[in-house]
Amino acid sequence: MLSKKKVFKEKEKENLSATYANRYFTKPISKTSIPADGIDGDVVYQLIHDELNMDGNPALNLASFVTTWMEPQAEKLIMETTNKNFVDQEEYPQTGKIQGRVVNMLAKLFHAPKSDEYIGTATIGSSEAIMLGLLAHKWTWRKKRKAAGKSTENPNIVIGADVHVVWEKFARYFDVEMRIIPMKEGHYTLSVDELKPQIDENTICVGAVMGTTFTGQLDPVQEINTLLEEIKIEKGWDIPIHVDGASGGFILPFLYPEFEWDFRLSHVRSINVSGHKYGLVYPGIGWLIMKDKTDLPEDLIFYVNYLGSEEATYTLNFSRGSSMVVAQYYNLLNLGINGYKQIMQNSLENAQYLGKKIEEMPNYHLTNTNIKLPILAFTIDSSAGYSVYDLSDKLRERGWIVPAYSLPPNAQEVKVLRIVIKENFSRDMADMLLNDIKTFSKELKTKKINLKRPQKTNNNGQINKHIC
Fold it and tell me: What distance in Å separates the CA atoms of residue 205 and residue 167, rounded to the nearest whole number?
């Protein structure tokens, strides 16, 4: 039988915090090996939760294009469907139907020719979607070459240096020559003048980016299409365009409905878009939409029956969650055309406001003053006495994540800072960011001046440290 004193101590122990009083808060947890004994779930949660506080604040992450906020109802649907394996259409047939609905909605949004069956698929993101689209073009090109009795060796893609790294990955992984048209200082999109000499009968497609990662600009897709029409007449080469609409695909249809960048152009045969960027869904969801069912070679579709029924699959990844497909459907229904338009308009206005204020600052210059998407990049003159990297580091001290980097060849001497404006970035936040940029600009400039100022010495030639 326990003594009264011991019982009191046991009761006292029970009343202590079950989490922060745990011994694992005074001893390190295992970081490289699975522990022999498990740890209480509440404690594990708190340990990981507290450790993740070291990460940046998603609301202040102006580097990422990825959505960092969704409505509570969407988050509820995400939690309700996160345990459903999307590939298992036998067990979860309604989820597959929802994917088909989204494909139809996006195909119509991108002006695909009227069809009883629109062709597309959900992907983990635009990287997978781009690879799938380019594989389709490679297979189509190869089939045409075989039918004509010609060699299927040495396929190539022609792109600008403004493309995402996934284009380079595709070329290397799938043995396709990559012909890159370099940037030039002051011109950061694909140059049509330099495009034609790079194209030949082995070109499987030309890439055009609607919203480049580097500066947020648009490749001249209409001019590219016109050039390919002329080449088709002149040479007989029917070369498709794959549009990388990762960033712009969910913006252009709502803000610029008359702008023809999509399937209205004759040579645009495939489009990818990131649902987890301006589609306003958490990571990771992307979409690939084909213009016509003839643009997807049957050889790239696989059929499996070991999930309970025969199912077709056209993805690089097999198993994945259903939640982000459902979340995309929620957004399309909840927001509608007008809702998306309003959000994109708000983001664009804040980006244009921010860009105008930055352009007014001494030594600061936008890479593109004609801001069409809520993405802006700017440089800092060397005469300012500090670099974009210095300012990026200082902004990080305040929690802002603003990336600094150099542009690709032949514009690698240009160093920029990029800001991506998303729906949860308000005008007040823009003003706070501007205030911090101005404050740190003065601080960095003062620091450089002090470093250059001659150091005063005493009669013994020693530096007076209290003066420096």
Answer: 12
* CA-atom Rg of the chain in angstroms: 27
Asked whether residue 196 carries a pLDDT value surpassing 50, the answer given is yes
Contact 262, 243 (CB under 8 A): yes
Count Cβ atoms below 10 Å from residue 121 Cβ, excluding itself.
20
- Other Cβ atoms within 10 Å of 313 Cβ, number: 15
**Residue 112, φ and ψ in degrees, nearest 5:** -65, 150
pLDDT digits (tens, 9 = 90+) for 126-168: 999 999 999 999 999 999 999 999 999 999 999 999 999 999 9
Q: Is 400 left (phi over 0), alpha (psi -120 to 50) or beta?
A: beta
Architecture of the domain made up of 74-332: 3-Layer(aba) Sandwich (3.40)
**What's the pLDDT at 412?**
95
Question: Rounded to 5 degrees, what angle do the CA atoms 330, 331, 333 make?
Answer: 65
Average pLDDT, the chain: 90
Domain ranges of the chain: 4-55, 74-332, 339-452
- Pairing verdict, β 364-366 and 375-380: antiparallel
Kindly list the distances between the CA atom of residue 301 and the CA atoms of 315, 354, 467, in Å, as whole numbers in the listed order. 8, 46, 74
State the residue for tokens 């712009």: 248
Report the topology of domain 339-452: Aspartate Aminotransferase, domain 1 (3.90.1150)
Name the CATH code of domain 4-55 (choices 4.10.280, 1.20.1260, 3.30.70, 3.30.300).
4.10.280
As a whole number of angstroms, the distance between CA 239 and CA 267 comes to 7
Q: pTM here?
A: 0.90
Tokens standing for residue 226: 């016109």
Average pLDDT over residues 2-9: 54
pLDDT of residue 463: 41
First to last CA, the chain: 73
Beta strand extents in 148-199 (DSSP E only): 156-160, 177-181
Distances (CA, A) of 313 to 98, 123, 304, 317: 16, 11, 8, 9
- Same fold for the pair 4-55 and 74-332: no
Q: Long-range CB contacts (< 8 A, 24+ apart) of 169-178?
A: 169/127, 169/131, 170/130, 170/131, 170/134, 170/135, 173/131, 174/131, 174/134, 174/135, 174/138, 176/134, 176/138, 176/204, 177/202
Average pLDDT over residues 93-104: 94
